[in-house]
Amino acid sequence: MESIGDLGEFGLIRRVTGRPMGPDVLLGPGDDAAVIAAPDGRVVATTDVLVEGRHFRLDWSSPYDIGRKAAAQNLADVVAMGARPTALLVGFGAPRTTSVEWARRLTDGIVDEADLVGASIAGGDTVGSPTVTIAVTALGDLGGAPPLTRSGARPGDVVAVRGRLGWAASGLHLLENGLDGPAELIAAHRRPRPVYTAAEEARSLGVTSMMDVSDGLLQDLGHIAELSGVAIDITAALVPLPPSLAESSVSRDETPTIPSEGKTSPSESGVGGVPVPDPLHLALTGGEDHAFAATFPGGTSFPAGWTIVGHVAEGAGVTVDGSVPSLRGWDHFRS
Ligand SMILES: Nc1ncnc2c1ncn2[C@@H]1O[C@H](COP(=O)(O)OP(=O)(O)OP(=O)(O)O)[C@@H](O)[C@H]1O
Ligand SMILES: Cc1ncc(C[n+]2csc(CCOP(=O)(O)O)c2C)c(N)n1
Ligand SMILES: [Mg+2]
Ligand SMILES: [Mg+2]
Ligand SMILES: [Mg+2]
């Protein structure tokens, strides 16, 4: 197996660059920096880091999946601002024994996800690292429109979501506990599928604030509530749920790898003694599906794909059916 140590830093860079560029990239990989077109003079820029063992496991996800996920979570942030993604910068760290093929498949995943929105990898950085670490920066173009911020929600607005909630968290639960369950849930953990048309749709519906859900609906809506100076109440009965995990069974050849004790709430005992997490709890607190959550003036009528889940009122904080929830979602230093 040819390793990236055999090839050397610059050999590896040559192997993972040279991909076709979209028209937004005026100068791509190879120079001291990339040059990206910014037709309206503003650039939306965002970065998210993925760390082996924390965001993905090499035995749970393929390099292609990890690439798709690293790109998707950054592209979703650009779209959440109401912008069109134009370019990605890819920071890649890995041990020298990593195979070149692994690095190429990771790049394929990033490129294929970026292709969904017409963005290209315009540059990056390549370093040695004891564990695989991927830091993607995404740039986007607002096309002359105002950004969709977290600060525009107003009392009387409704809260609506576009995309899945709790699917990736359900897949993670299956993987962590060595359970067989719906394949689509494990796929959702490996590759989020943000609905990239959401910003365009939201603008046409008169959106007042918008974000993507990375850490959990309640946690993330907390940012809109805080920055908009409003209260948000979620109506539990309206929240779209992931498929049930009640039928999941312990797979023959696997035993639980990471105890999930303390991370699940209201549950009954499932097969093999692993508690079955409540789908509503997963939908309210599970991150990584990168659904879009947004607020709209009351009375907005929504097309298929958007689901009203709550409303905005005067006050502060996020409640569910009027009560303060005990768990809200992912916190890197608490989860
Ligand atoms: N080390 C840092 N230095 C400066 N700003 C930071 C740093 N870390 C995070 N931020 C900023 O703080 C905010 C964090 O918000 P939040 O965690 O909701 O971002 P996100 O990227 O949408 O979510 P996630 O990271 O869960 O995908 C972002 O505006 C981000 O740019
Ligand atoms: C191996 C493994 N263990 C746990 C998780 C769960 N997880 C990690 S980060 C995160 C929040 C979003 O990340 P960020 O805030 O950095 O965007 C979540 C829900 C996972 N994906 N893989
Ligand atoms: Mg972030
Ligand atoms: Mg975000
Ligand atoms: Mg986060």
TrEMBL record:
It comes from the Bacteria. Substrate binds at H55, E288, W330. GO terms for biological process: thiamine biosynthetic process; thiamine diphosphate biosynthetic process. ATP binds at G124, D125, R150, S214. Residues 30-140 form the PurM-like N-terminal domain. Mg(2+) 5 binds at D215. Catalyzes the ATP-dependent phosphorylation of thiamine-monophosphate (TMP) to form thiamine-pyrophosphate (TPP), the active form of vitamin B1. NCBIfam families: PRK05731.1-4, thiL. This is Thiamine-monophosphate kinase. It comes from Actinomadura harenae.
